[in-house]
Amino acid sequence: MKTTPMRVSAASLVIALLVPLDAFAESSGDWQYQATLYGYFPSIGGKTTIPPPIGGSGASVDIDDILEDLQFAFMGAFEVRRGQWGGFTDFIYLDVGDTNQRSQSFSLGSIEIPADVNAKTSYDLKGWVWTLAGTYRAIENSAVTLDVLAGARALDIETALSFELSGNLGPIALPDRSGSHKGKDQNWDAIVGVKGRIGLGQEGKWFVPYYLDIGAGESDFTWQAMAGVGYTFGWGDVTAAWRYTDYEMEPGGLLEEFNLGGPAIAATFHW
Questions:
Q1: Is 171 exposed, middle or buried (0-12, 13-18, 19+ CB in 10 A)?
Q2: Where are the beta strands (DSSP E) in 19-116?
């Protein structure tokens, strides 16, 4: 069922890599590189669904009502350019988990959980988001740079969910009173977008970085955006920005929705 979107994403990835590499051979100028390390502090949201046990009901959890503790996050990027052509890669790794007692974050199929029932829910999420694309410098002057991009993004997520209900359990069937499930979801999506920066002031030391992409493939729809403010030094840039990534999946899957967004502080090194 995912074969066609996967082929589209894979083909887009190959094109995004091969076209810039072929054009590099014909472009003039020196190779330019930059590497970025981020301190990223995202909030994570979405919806996850576990399949029903025999004789029971499927359970759904609103991720943002549970996840409050971010155990580890890493984000880094690397970019290369020669002339107007280039390429970049961007990687985010997440390790989050939490436990709570709020029944509002938990639902059992079409069953309404009574107000006097507590749902102890534990949820862990580990995974990564990887973007890889080729770029073309469409605009470059003292005030503005704009690159158009095409490539692919991969999402690889592992989840572990367990729940236990307590209280007035009379109307709730025995198989629905506790459960656990582990699962893995992996998507490849083709993306297109723009990225660049807008200079502020005559000296151009201050600038506004921006990024936007949209895509689809094994996901129904995905998009990513970033904007902030930065300052240029001799060795590179320091940037403070807000970044948001969103996925819409097929209903009934392990992840029906997934998003992460929050502030980031970055140091970019040029050579």
A1: exposed
A2: 31-40, 43-50, 59-62, 70-82, 85-100, 106-108
Q: Give the closest residue to 125 by CA, choosing from 92, 88, 89, 91.
A: 92
Helix then strand then coil, % of the chain, to nearest 5: 10, 65, 20
Task: Give the pair of three-digit tokens for residue 230.
Answer: 């930065």
Average pLDDT, the chain: 81
Residue 234, φ and ψ in degrees, nearest 5? -65, -35
Residue linked to tokens 């840039």: 237
CA distance 246 to 261: 8
Which among 99, 89, 97 has a CA at the least distance from the CA of 73?
97
CA distance 183 to 17: 31
What is the rounded average pLDDT of the residues 14-43? Answer: 70
Query: Any idea how long the chain is?
Result: 271
SS3 sequence, 145-197? EEEEEEEEEEEEEEEEEEEEEEECCCCCCHHHCEEEEEEEEEEEEEEEEEEEE
The partner residues of 130 in beta bridges, in order of sequence, read: 91, 154
When pLDDT is averaged across residues 130-149 and rounded to a whole number, the result is: 96
Query: Which token pair is 124?
Result: 């862990």
DSSP code for 7: H
CB-based contact 17:87 (threshold 8 Å): yes
C-alpha distances in Å from residue 68, one per residue of 4, 71, 95, 124: 37, 10, 12, 11
- Non-local (6+) Cβ contacts of 4 within 8 A are none
Token pair 């082929």: residue = 7
pLDDT tens, residue by residue, 13-25: 545 454 454 544 4
